[in-house]
Design goal:
By secondary structure, this protein is an alpha/beta fold. The chain contains 16 helices and 14 strands. Helix content is 42%, strand content 18%. The chain folds into two domains: 214 residues, Glycogen Phosphorylase B (Rossmann fold); 185 residues, Glycogen Phosphorylase B (Rossmann fold), CATH 3.40.50.2000. The longest helix has 21 residues. α6 links the parallel β7 and β8.
Length: 409
Amino acid sequence: MENALKVLYFHQHFVTPQGAGAIRSYAMARKLIERGHSVTMVCGSNSSGTTGLRSSFSRGKRRGIVDGIDVVELDLAYSNSDGFVKRVWTFLLFAIRSIRIALTEKYDVVFATTTPLTAGIPGIFARWLRKKPFVFEVRDLWPELPREMGVIKNPLVLWAMEVLEWASYRSADRLIGLSPGIVEGIRKRGVPAERIALIPNGCDLDIFSEKGEPWRPEGVRESDLLAVFAGTHGLANGLDAVLDAAKELKKRGRDDVKLVLIGGGKLKPALQARAQRESLTNVVFHDPVKKADLAGLMRAADLGMQVLANVPAFYYGTSPNKFFDYIAAGLPVLNNYPGWLAEMIEEEQCGFAVAPADPVAFADALERAANERDSLPGMGQRSKDLAQSRFDRNILSVQWVDWVAGVER
């Protein structure tokens, strides 16, 4: 039996399955515990998620055990709707306060996961000041992504991010990339390949395979084709592409196709305003829901929409949670940008891959799905097969634990 380790885990956006959001860190922490290790999870507060703690904050934090995880939640509220300056300030405050924890807490291994990139700062301090093994997980390539999106243009800020990226990669004893492009991006920074592992996002088959009551949002008929997007409504998600397709479908008179957008985010009010202004009654907005309820919706849905802004850094450099939720639920996937996921969808014949910024092609795929609904169950089964054979969270989490726990050896 492997030696039990105390793992100090930094993830600013940690949530449990009882909230809305990605639960990778929760699943990985639970797997560490199942293998006999202990985990202290350091996180911030999230507007759409829940850490599982209910007590009041004292001196800016609260602490308690959640499903065996020792959770330290800092009173640093974060929302995708926050302005750029506020978000940056929240990121920096979390990093600064995390440094103190990294220098005082008792642990054997420190693990940090992005985003944001500043999540690596406490790991750097732990590595160099306390000589602790440091494992760094990269979920998005920074500063490549904000640079290509045009979110950050200041050359000094971009340079500072490059320095932080370089320092995080070079300080880490081991690294984890969530997509082929991320792994390649780390390697190009001069990190030896033997220090990098590809462990993508996984499918929560236990959640999405449960028998539950399917449900449809108000305004979606039983006879309608239900295409769902479940995720953040932010700049990176490019959800105007969905509204562009809805406008094209409206022109064609296809009111039997409903596009359901589940979630929240900074751009949601603007998207809702546009849909109302253009009378896009085929678009339905819904608040975020927890995983169990999302599973019920997906059991009623016909198609999952994997949508991102047309940014080349996304093509191979992202591993979106929603894609893995869709295939875990056995849904065909409509993807609107090139890259490794589009290639996988075409290879496995489990959905539709359309060109970016092409509302006609997007609408064509939706119309084809509505016209050929008999073909969707077969696509959905191939999605499910893909989820089970290559992206089962239980299998991937074992690989993850072996990589993290093996850093001392």
